[in-house]
Amino acid sequence: MSIHNRPHTICGPMYGELALISGTANRPLAEAIARELEIPLTGADVFKFANSNIFCRLHSSVRSKDVFIIQPTCVTEHEDGHVASVNDNLMELLIMLDTVRRDSAGRITAVVPYYGYGRTDKKDQPRVPITARLVADLISVAGADRLLTVDLHAGQIQGFFTIPVDELTAFYALSKYFREKRIPDAVVVAPDIGGTKHARNFAEALHVPLAVIEKRRVQRPDGSVAKALNVIGDVEGKNVLLFDDEIDTGGTIAQAIVFLQSAGARRVFVGVTHPVFSDPAVERLSGLPIEEIVVTDTIPLPPRKRLPNITVLSMANLIAEVIRRIHEGRSVGALFGE
User: Which of 59, 246, 255, 302 is least buried, going by the fewest C-beta atoms within 10 A?
Assistant: First the structure.
């Protein structure tokens, strides 16, 4: 997707000048978005006091401006060794939203490439919260007028917000990458029944067959576990492409790959949007015969998690173009032919 050169000052039809502010969760992505838009990031000091309270101070006023705050709510491992938790980055986002709201910003958009707590999206057992809804309420109350995010874990999370939500997807970037690789004898495999629709879309885009791993819960003395029992479709002698929205601890992917190999699959490729890579994901992935793991930069990968077979696709170009369209009051759906 090409973005044409435009003036450094971008003004929309209803709001003032465009302003980008980066939190500390994924500064490289924010800087890449700013380069695509050819505008500087608005300076801000964001730090913790000795008592762990987070503080934010803008270097210049954003009064009446159209402000976009870029801050995924993921775990971030900083170069100095400090690790910011999901809660740290979420609280930082809320405080930054409150900061620009109190500075009388014209409109505030929370750009959250990775939406933490997205997996707690329903009450699937007694006496549990729906934290994805709680986070939606927090973001709205803190001052966001709209949300821009990438590949939510569950589509219904959009409905948790009372403000407009633009959900982008890495589907086009991932499918384009694998289409250009022209992998012979390829088949897209859904790691479980729940991922069938997602995998089917990739299979259609790549013009290859679809297979699905069937899992069932097996009772053990220490509780029930999901176990792969069957594969629906032909994978014998095929090069397998596994797609998912995220890899957390890597357990699902690891089990799928071991099962597919026992079913006669040859090379294995993995494509995911969000490289969460919670421990022991890196250890599991490094021990698996994966040809290539393709991820995006919605979550920053520290050096210890950058395995030799990992390829990172940037979402900066897409996010920048969507920010431009939101700012100028143009359709986001038209960007994808919708």
Answer: 59
Residue 152: C-alpha distances to residues 112, 117, 149, 229 (Å): 10, 10, 7, 28
Cα–Cα distance between 218 and 215 in angstroms, integer?
A: 9
Assess if CATH 3.40.50.2020 describes domain 18-169+316-336: yes
Which amino acid is present at 4?
A: H
pTM attached to this predicted model = 0.92
What pLDDT digit, counting tens, does each position of 194-204 carry? 889 999 999 99
Pick the catalytic residue: 176, 181, 197, 215?
Answer: 215
Whether 215 is a known active-site residue: answer yes
End-to-end CA gap in the chain? 16
Q: Do the domains at 18-169+316-336 and 172-313 have one common CATH topology?
A: yes
Q: How far apart are CA 117 and CA 110, in angstroms?
A: 16
Query: pLDDT tens for residues 22-39?
Result: 999 999 999 999 999 999
